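Shape is hard to put into words, and the shape of a protein is harder than most. The fold becomes a row of whole numbers, each drawn from a learned catalogue of backbone shapes. The outcome of that step, for a single protein, is printed below.
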Amino acid sequence: MALQSSGAISLGDIEGEFGGTAPTSLSEYYSAAVGVPASGEISLTDFYGTSNRVTINLTIASNTSVYDIFANKGGTYSAGNTDVIVTVNSGVTVSAGATDYAMRTDSGGQWAAGDTIKLINNGTIAGYGGRGGNGGTTGSRVGSNGAVGKHAFRANTNCTIDNNGTLAGGGGGAGGGGFSIQTGRANEKASFTTVSANGGGGGGGAGQNAGAIGSYGTGGSAATATAGGTGKTGITTSNSGTGYARGGNGGNGGARGTVGANGSTATGFAGGYGGSVINYAGGTGGAAGFAVAGSGTVTWESTGTRYGSF
């Protein structure tokens, strides 16, 4: 807590703020705070409004990605005596890369006991959308799983958040549709013929960097910053008999902070004489990214808009 800015001030007041034992000279406190002389004449009034704590104000005024608060703390940091205030300006977006966060307090255990961190978010902090899984194929018959969405903010140490904007975890990528393989013949004398069909790729999850749509199949739509992509339709292939192979459809990607849908099991039909079909399952949708993740305790001053767990 800073010393008073006017009125009576004593050596005891200064000792209480800056530490020490029964000082007999103010010279023990040279350079104790900004504005206090480093040498020469020094007076009690030089300590008006001073504090033994350092305040670091960090402002994010333009779009950026993967912002680590500890890495940007600057040279005035004093371990255990620093109050860090990070402000994301209105209209500014902090986005995730391929890692698991858009912004984090630190990589874990870097701040000293006594330091405080406060985030004032007036913009958007958004996670990465998960990629959609591929449709099943001859080589990998079950549709592949969608990728997980990435987190918006990772609190690896205790902090305070004043959220006046948006904290959005990335949407999970959807699972790809399953592969279908069908064997049949047109009549008792005809030879068996086999056809197969790929599943459709799953839609990507929403994110400032939206997840890509999975491979194979037809149609589908790309994910955006706020909406998950639509999965592709599985392929249908007819047999010379009366059956067909039909791949499963890819699921739809998750919106911000939402799990991706599962891909569909293939739906081929075994027709003809002695025909058979194997329909493989679709992949699982990816988990959603968190609005806030991490082991630190968060104190909320304002909750704002949040997508995903926190």
Summary: The chain has one helix and 19 strands. The two ends are 31 Å apart (CA to CA). The chain has a mean pLDDT of 93. The longest helix spans residues 11-18.
